[in-house]
Amino acid sequence: MPQSPRQSSAQPLCAADLSPALIDELTTTAHALADAARKASLRWFRHPGLAAESKESQRFDPVTLGDREAEIAMREILARLRPDDAVFGEEQGVTEGSSGLTWVLDPIDGTRGFLSGTPTWGVLIAVGDASGPLYGLIDQPYIGERFEGGFGRARLQGPQGEQPLACRGPRGLDQAILFSTFPEIGSPAEAAAFQRVAGAVKLVRYGMDCYAYALLAAGQIDLVIEAGLQAYDIQGPMAVIRAAGGIVTNWQGGDAAQGGQVIAAANPEIHAAALALLQAG
């Protein structure tokens, strides 16, 4: 699994270590990245000439000009505004930095949805240090929704104005709504673990990509469970969900910042109930 860029040996940063001026600079930069990626990706969304190549030979893992141009646009802004920061992007890999901060970029999370014309893909942006993401955005360009979390912020900006983000409160697992991207999640053992949770909840939905995490932060659903993720798939959503009061870990209850098996939950209670079923085998 690709790892985020190497960081210096200095102690990890946290929001309390950052000055108000630096926090403002980082959030302003993040929104500038999202604006640029919106423009670049929408140029190709539902475009009759959109084509896709597959990154893998064994399965269809598409990449489009929308993905590539959106990441290029974001990297150009970072090179100008934050040249000392490291960058880890899905399409262009790692650029080392010296500041102790890393930008983790997924220019289009959900390229299959993008290619199919569904508005469930999104632009994922996170900035953090060696300990993981400190701040993140989930942006859905076509709908015009932007979910923001970190540095004391947890909000949605969209067609209905600005609203606070807050995850759902505790409820029984039999009342929960669970999302995942693929019904055939991961390996056979991972699929069996997922099905133990899926069989216990009220409703299961598939195919939402990063929009599922946005809905979790917005208080609409209770759980997202996936396997085989990369750091750029989860770090932006992780920051947003944590800011909204939720919890994101791996299936062992540990750090999920590098991807792999991920469970995102609206609260510790439903996280614990789902985690127990994932581990029951």
Automatic annotation (TrEMBL):
Keyword terms of this UniProt record: Hydrolase, Magnesium, Metal-binding
Residue ranges of coiled coil: none
Classification via PROSITE patterns: IMP_1 (PS00629)
Co-factor(s): Mg(2+)
One Pfam family per UniProt: Inositol_P
Protein name as catalogued: Inositol monophosphatase family protein
Keyword match Protease: no
The keyword Hydrolase is assigned to this record: yes
Similarity comment: Belongs to the inositol monophosphatase superfamily.
Lineage: Bacteria, Pseudomonadati, Pseudomonadota, Alphaproteobacteria, Rhodobacterales
